[in-house]
Structures are given as structure tokens and as C-alpha cells.
Design brief:
Blueprint: H1 2-35, H2 47-54, E1 59-60, E2 80-81, E3 118-130, E4 135-146, E5 150-161, E6 164-165, E7 168-179, E8 182-192, E9 198-209, E10 213-221, E11 227-234, E12 237-238, E13 243-254, E14 266-278, E15 284-295, H3 297-305, E16 311-322
Parallel strand pairs: 1-2
Antiparallel strand pairs: 3-4, 3-16, 4-5, 5-6, 5-7, 7-8, 8-9, 9-10, 10-11, 11-13, 12-13, 13-14, 14-15, 15-16
GO biological process, one term: intracellular copper ion homeostasis
Pfam families: CopB
Protein name: Copper resistance B
Amino acid sequence: MTENRQIAATVSRRFLWLAMGLLAAPTMAFAQVAQAPASSSMPPMNATSHVESSMGGMQMDSMQDGSAAPDGNGSMAGMKMGSMQGGSAPPDARRADYSEGVSPSSEPGMDMDDAAPVGMLQFDQLEAFHNRDSNGLAWEMHGWYGNDSNKLWVRSEGERSGGHFGESDVEALWSHAVAAYWDTELGIRQDFGDGPPRHWAAFGVQGIVPYNFDLEATGYVDPSGRTAARVRAEYNMRFTQRLILQPDLEINAYGRSDPARRLGSGISDAQLGLRLRYEISRRVAPYIGAEWKRRFGGTANFARDDHQAVFDQQWVAGIRIWY
């Protein structure tokens, strides 16, 4: 017990001597400066020179104007601390845009130029179908070329079965953007297939409604005064990033009966499709599905007279591609 107390007392005395030495050192330095004769060759000692002496000649640039302090004679002579404001960046500094010298991408359509023309051709449906009466091929496609404000659109849909075309048409439209996600359309439509060909002037709108439904609504007038209308809507339900279920609905209507093409007045038919596709890539996606078609009014009567089904269901398998 006595030895422990002696050790503690010794340690305490040493810490006390160290503290007194640290406190006395600045006082002795200033006392020496005050007692130095005026004719002495030693330069006056101020706070800056004292720091320079004790730091061995370290130079500190001004934090305001970048001017350097005079050199000292210590072992650390020549060390400089740069200005914290202003001045030029070192030659190996990172670029302000973080590009590191890499040029912008040259991929078409990615230059953010609203006036740059771009185009696309897409077959939403290119398929084989089987129904109660026949087998055949069907298509639905669209393509466009232009800029964000104005485009030339081409649309077509139809089917071929038994060596001849069924109800088919092709449209050429000028599309003009009028609001976010909405375009107006003006152009022409040509019907071919069953019955004599028909020519129509076309006008309408297309865009995206809330919840991301794609909608097209188009009206038609032919030179003889016939009128028609078509509404299409579709939606993409994503189960995964590649597996997508696409329901679509189309309704056609005519202002008056057209017996030569077996069409009645009013709503002539409605088609509901359901297709499940797998996107091997964004551009290539095989699919399978089903489609239901219901004829109404005079069109249904023409179908009965021709021994065709008023309500028809068909199975489809095809591919969705775009360029």
C-alpha cells in the first residue's frame, strides 16, 4: 500500500512539472524579446516570425489574396499551403460535366432535338388465327415519321383467309401534337377486301388517357356522304419486365347501310382481344391469345344471310416486332 502511494505521488509531481514548463515557455520567450537590445542584429520577434521560427520556415499563403510569407531557415523550408479561395484548378482536375473527355452518344433519336425527324415501323399483331369456319392470317401495324410536333402516320389492319382478303383497310394521316400525350389526325383511308373498295377522308385524335390506356378515335366521310367511326383502346399489364398481357378493344360504326360490303347502319361490330406476349427483346415479342368478335344490327343480319357466325371466337399466335 505504501509503495502505491509513493508511485502515485511521483507521477503527480512529474505531471505538475510538465504543466508548469509548458506555461512558462511562452512567458520566457516574450521576456527575452523585451530584454533584447535595440541594436541587436536579431530581427524583432512578432507573432508571425515566432510561428515561422517554430514551424521551421513553413510558408502560409494568404487566404484572401494568395501572397506568400517570406522563407524561413528551418528544416521544413519550402513547404507551402495553397490559397483556399480562387486560383486555377490543377491540370488533372475532374471535368465540370463529369464527362472525362468522353464525347456525347451518337445513337439516333437521343440528341434531344425536338425538330429532328425520326421514324418507326411496328407490327403490333402479325399472327395466324383459327376460328370455327376457317384459318388465316391477320395483321395490325402502324408506322410514323416526323418530329415531336408533326408526323406522317400509316396504319393498316385486316385479314386474309381462303386465298382472298377479308375486311381490310390502310390509312395515311398527318398527326399534329396539341397537348401533352395528345395528337390530332387528318388524312385518308382506303378499304379493300370484301366488296367494292371505299375511299374516306379521316380525322380524329389519339393519345394516352389516365392509367396509361392508349386511345384512338377516328371519324370518316366518303365522297357519297357515307360516314363511319372507329374507336380503339389497349392497355399493357406487366407481370414482369418481359411477360405482358395486352387487352384491346375495337368498335366500328357506320352512318348508313352498305349492302355491297355487308355492313349495316349503327354499331356494326365490336372486337375484344387478349394477347400474352414475352419480350425476347423490346423489338421482338412472340405471343398467344384469343379474340372475340360480335356483330350487331344490320351487320349481324347480313352475317346470318351469308351463313356466318354473329358471335365468333378465334385463337391466335403471332409475333410483335418493330424497327
